[in-house]
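Workshop exercise sheet. Pairs work together: one partner reads the sequence aloud, the other fills in the structure field after running the prediction. Swap roles for the next sheet.
Pair: D.N. / O.F.
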Amino acid sequence: MSSSTSNLDLLTQSQYGHYITVNGLADAASPAMLFGRRQALCSGLNWFYYGGVLLADGVTTTVANNAAALVLTASATNYIEATTAGVVSANTVGFTAGRIPLYTVVTGASSVTSYTDQRPLTYQSATFTANIKTFLATPSSANLAAAVTDETGSGALVFATSPTLVTPTINTAASVGGAWTAAATWTLPALTLGGTVSGGGNQLNNVVIGTVTPLAGAFTTLTSSGSAAIGGAISTDRVLHVNGVITGAVSAYGAVVNGVIQSGVTTSAHLYRTALNTQATAFTLPLASHYTAAQSTIGAGSTVTVQTGFLAESSLIGATSNYGFRGTIPAAAGRYNCYMDGSAPNYFAGDMQFDKTVTAVGTTGARTISKNAGTVNFAAGATALVVTNTLVTVNSIVVATVAGNDATMKSVQAVAAAGSFTLYANAAATAETRVNFLLIN
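Structure field:
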């Protein structure tokens, strides 16, 4: 009875046939008794329930009273639930999403100690599709996209603060604050731009970033021809033109590459690399320079104390082997690992090392050593020794010195020929005597 005045046939104290009225009331209320506990049959861990008519997702299903007991788990909290098809089950984990909760039942070793009715009072006025039911059970972005029918794009649901957009298409003037044309100037709010900007004509042409016009040093121009400029106008004779003002700190830089090498890079890493290619047509290029350091204008009143074309700083010592400059060009005509054709002096403060072959003690006589430095051993009584060396020409300078304190052999003369040189001792060696040589071409 939901109000003080009831529409039901109530029992009176002097009424005859009370059971008739009670049965009639129970019959009228039977739809609400669906899945209700059937007390007369419940005992121990056996659970019985009343059947009835179930309307779920627009489908009417007749559920019978269970003939076989639903056996509950002992000494646990059992969650009794039903599917939308009217199938009843129990578990000890919790109610399953998408199913109808019925009862929570606490059991002892052999009987029910307490139970709580969890049956919801619902009224369904709409039929849900399978995709909508899936979304309500698992509200993910993918399930929402499947539930709606007029979406555009794909991926995750986007909210207002700091969303990540993957390859979006912006195709209205309202989206960017101006006309979407190659010649237009439009304003974006302060954003971090990444990925590829695609379209026709000048793709980024003096774009205003934030609330101010780009200053010197800001990215300003990228053309459809592939030319780009930073801090100035593009030029037809270069792919990338950097013309910004170097400032901002007492030590400043025009460009910095400061990448972090990841663990997947296991063979080699190159922070800066050039590779020469030429067009497949007949032409001659007198000079191709992979790196050029040139003098521009030192302004009036300014002084540059030291200018370095290439600097390997003293901090470049963290690897197992460290080289300020390294060349691995193999020997052949017209090849040099280091070629200094300027007339200014060359200064080396550290040790100068040349590849050499040192002949072992006990090995005497003529030797083949095609290196710029090495040693040979005169045998006792020997007065001359020939060294075959492919680097030697008749114009080579061979500097040779006696490296031992022999009683008779005190000096040698070196005579160069094509492919070899001969060492002549001032006197026959008393004992085996070592001679050092240095070849200069």
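Discussion prompt: The chain is about 5% helix and 20% strand. What would you look at next?
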